[in-house]
Fold Agmatine deiminase.
Amino acid sequence: MTGSAPRFPAEWERQSAILIAWPHAETDWAERLGEVEETYIALVVAITRFQPVLVCVANDDVEAYARARLASARVDMERVRFIGIDYDDTWLRDSGPITLRDGDGFRLLDFRFTGWGGKFEATRDDELVEGLVERDTFRADRHDSIDFALEGGAIETDGAGTLLTTWKCLHERHPQASRGELDRRLSGWLHQDRVLWLDHGYLEGDDTDAHIDTLARFAAPDAIVYQGCNDPADSHYAELRAMAAELAALRTRDGQPYRLFELPWPEPVLDAGRRLAASYANFLIVNGAVLMPAYDDPADSVAAGVLQQAFPDREIVQVPCRPLIWQNGSLHCITMQLPEGLVAS
């Protein structure tokens, strides 16, 4: 261990693996399990081209089934590791560990997961990080359990001390806390020296109360990719235009405007009349690539082009995610990156 301060690494830094949880009949995916399994298979195929994946499985039967499906899809099974552990659902972006680099080691931050403000049962998900630690999954020097509701999808970092988040989500979780108090708490726990707040931006069908990872993401310390809307007749138009103006007004640490990359707006996706939250901003960065949610929409290829401009040195890989948005999330929401060196052999 060195004496340097802990640091919250950016997603584009080198990774050990991606953590996911396999859907099964006891999760909220039960009604459309077959469709969702196809997305998970495509996701694991994409991840294992670049790095390992850790797959949480609820029991031996789930593991055997997942193993057989992945092997039949010609996944490199040397890059797949299964971990037997219980969970309520599979949104590991929000229930998984938030990792700080701490000198030569790591510190796991285990915030409370409340099912997005008590909307859903989350007892087992809230115990997930502790369970992974007990199974010797990580090489972490500290596991800090923090009695404060915070989901990984609610925060973005540039890896250099700047945090990006939305007021709506944090205020919804902690209505009695002022912005200044939340600013201090987030800065302290996550070792950030500034927090950039967005007051606008939302997606219909999103039950996270405007997680930042559905709206705007860092692509570099001086670059932000964000979900745009170019249809004045769409219900999102005013809010997403206002968010774009907020992003344009933000400044980097050295006082310069951010380089901004606007993602296209897909056609509305409806399910029994309910608008689903299809966002291209919910991409996942892995070693050497960006995995992009695709929605079987003409805008998919346009979004891939925007992401290629924002990440010129990475391959852009489309993963079919239309089944995921039935449960109000997408690709980034079901994954959690684990920094290089964190995963125990």
